[in-house]
Amino acid sequence: MDERTVPARRTAPGAALLLAAVVLVTACTDGRGAVVGTPGAAGVRDPYFPRLGNGGYDVTHYDLSVATDARAGRISGTAVITARATQDLSAFNLDLAGLDVRSATVEGRPAAVNRAGWELTLRPAAEVADRLRAGRTFRTVVRYAGPPRTVTDADGSEEGWLRTAYGAVALGEPAGSMTWFPGNHHPGDKASYDIRVTVPEGRSAVSNGELASRRTAGGSTTYHWRAREPMASYLATVAVGRFTVRRTVTGTGLAVVTAVDPGSAGASARVLARIPEMVAWGEEKFGPYPFSSAGAIVGRPDDAGYALETQNRPFLPGPPDPVLLVHELAHQWFGNSVTPASWRDMWLNEGFATYAEWLWSEDHSGPTVQESFDEAYADEANWAFPPSRPPGPADLSGPPVYGRGAMVVHRIRRAMHDDPAFFRLVRGWLEEYRHGNASTADFTAYAEEASGRDLTEIWDTWLDGRSRPARG
Ligand code: TRP
Ligand code: ZN
Fold first, then answer.
1. Which side of the chain, N or C, has fewer Cβ within a 10 Å radius?
2. pLDDT for 74-129, tens place per residue?
3. Mean pLDDT over residues 53-72, rounded?
4. Which domains does the chain have, with CATH numbers?
5. What pTM was estimated for this model as a whole?
6. Burial class of 23 by CB neighbour count within 10 A (0 to 12, 13 to 18, 19+)
7. Which ligand is nearest to the CA of 353?
8. Residue 205 C-alpha to ligand 2 middle, in angstroms?
9. What Rg, from alpha-carbon coordinates, does the chain have?
């Protein structure tokens, strides 16, 4: 999503300026009138989306309660956000696109609210200023309501709160989650989540993590999902519909929850039944599955033009091809557990998830990995730009990020001349950065250290180079 797609300012520019001046002057004081703390930054300077995310704090936990009607055209929500200040804060921002903010408190006291585009600025009451000093944990509660937006991504795809024939699904990559809850919406700030969704009785609401409870009263059902392991906000989801929900466990006892729109149920059953086998295959290649449950959400083909690796439970718009399902499950290791430090590092997600497709195909009587590599190499579309440097936000999901990203992985494997050592490197990488964030520089440094080789040649040509290198 591009800054230009953001809704118009809700405050007149003059009023916003005045408020900004008031925020500056009255910010937080130490009781003797001196200002302590400064406002947190309005963005974390992501190279592709500089205003995504916010500075000055780290969210540790989101407790979201969202209610919607059968048509899912309106929501009302309460976000309880627990965060740790990383500087003395006089004010801080959350990202929220559209929706009306009904009230906001910080540490239990009403906070002043200002909105400009997707930046929601909260100025805590002076009495609680001390609780937002660097290192302290503070709690923010935002109540909000309205018709959630859908946003058009830089590449033209729709994300955010997508209404569907049966209800709705929220898809957040790279910037859609701000359409249904306020937060620090950059992948660098991961947190655990409790997500409670209230829907009319007879509908189901499926989200990340595990179902902690389900209660029906007065014609509404509240589903409470809990995602304990850290999650980047673009991987949070809610799907509302009349799903067929199935629970099973893998051979190692991992819970698997699938939710399928009845229109897709028949055609999905066989492939979804393979999730335990796919997870076991992934564990053999990549090491322990990083989350406490797995599964999938299957909607209808016209819900979205793409699948997304929403945490624990990838979303697939209609009956999936097995290889697509493997791709989304592979993201649970590559992207969801080890998450890009910035959107520039997207190839670490898509290159490895594509490589997982190649590995799976080879193991299941499809093309060999080398054949997949050769096919990707021959495809002009993969040479449009280097995977480490997509020209702009519209290119983040372009073919080089996937196909050429996977080629980088394969070139490392070939340079090592030792498959067991290569797979140890991949597992070591996932273990080292498990539940964290990693950049391309982290990866290249790790790969050189773990392989004991100078891989400069691979980085200069396959990863960063402009033109197609000789195959060698
Ligand atoms: N990450 C998704 C996948 O590969 C694809 C995708 C969905 C995507 N939305 C996006 C990629 C937005 C980049 C930007 O399965
Ligand atoms: Zn992918």
1. C
2. 999 999 999 999 999 999 999 999 999 999 999 999 999 999 999 999 999 999 99
3. 96
4. 13-240 (2.60.40.1730), 338-463 (1.10.390.10)
5. 0.93
6. middle
7. 2
8. 24
9. 23
